Amino acid sequence: MTARVPVETADLIFRLADSRGIPASEFIAEAVQEKLARTDLSDVEIQEELPLQETA
Known about the structure:
It comes from Micrococcus terreus. This is Ribbon-helix-helix protein, copG family. The protein is mainly α and 56 residues long. It contains two helices and no strands. It has a domain at 7-36. The longest helix is centred in the first third of the chain and has 14 residues, at 7-20.
């Protein structure tokens, strides 16, 4: 799945992250966490996390 973000929004993400002194990926992760915290997930079946495995 690919999401397209307008250039102005992408620029804003980087500027906001920079102003907080964090990488843009961390800023985006925080925004997603906040959005999920406000979302009703009662109709979603949540499965346990699968353990990560090292690959050679």
